[in-house]
Amino acid sequence: MTCAEAVDLLDAWFDDELDVRGSVEVERHLAGCAGCAKQADALRALRQGLRSATRYAPPDRLSRRLRAAVAPRRAWAAGALAAAAAAAALIAVLPRSAGEPADELFSAHARSLQPGHLTDVVSSDQHTVKPWFQGRIDYSLPVKDLAADGFALAGGRLDYLDGHPAAALVYRRAQHVVNLFVWPGGGPAAQISRRGYTALGWTQDGMRYWAVSDLAAPELERFVKLLRSQ
Question: Looking at the structure, do residues 112 and 12 belong to the same domain, yes or no?
């Protein structure tokens, strides 16, 4: 990345509008370029100054009116806090796989659906997709052809999860996309649903797999069963 490219992307970087790869490239450039890092610091100071300039102390009359309006709600707030604490306790005991980047899985899937982000290598041939990853990841990636079963391989890309590179294989089922994230590791079988997406995780042959899609859960389970049976 050149200095001009990095400077052009600074505003988007500060606003978290870049994809993971774009953010990583900007951060790497800033770490190695003192000039651009100085511009980033200046822009950060300017943005913070503008935010501070928009703050003001409310008049005493407004403060009294707000306190009077809030007072009747205190009893309700106390009950709401108690309910929130109970909900948090319930969430804490729900079965989850320690260390699984659940939020990042769904974010990576949603990000991949933006134009131009789905694949780095476009091919339905497993013998084309698998070699593309050589030199980009430090593990052998199993790539399976499920076209005969209705899940056509569309390609793959290099993604980032929990700050580390991860292979993402892309399959299509009619108008639906299935992202299959693969990296070395382990963990129990798991199912997570969020914002209309489902993620199924499992471990096989020393590799950790996560399949993420907006497919109905039974269809995604069928996809996973096909992968595991081959």
Answer: no
- Contact call for residues 174 and 86 (beta carbons, < 8 A): no
Amino acid, single-letter form, for residue 104:
E
Residue pair 203/187 in contact (Cβ under 8 Å)? The answer is: yes
Query: With the CA atoms of 219, 222, 227 and 230 taken in that order, what torsion angle do they form, in degrees rounded to the nearest 10?
Result: -150
Please give the tally of structural domains in the chain.
3
Residue 51 CA neighbour count, 13 Å, CB half: 6
Q: How many CB atoms lie within 10 A of CB 110?
A: 16
Residues 146 and 174 occupy one common structural domain: yes
Q: Which residue has the higher pLDDT, 96 or 212?
A: 212
* pLDDT higher than threshold 90 for residue 225: yes
Q: Residues 222, 200: contact at Cβ < 8 Å?
A: no
Confidence bin at 198 (pLDDT 50/70/90): very high
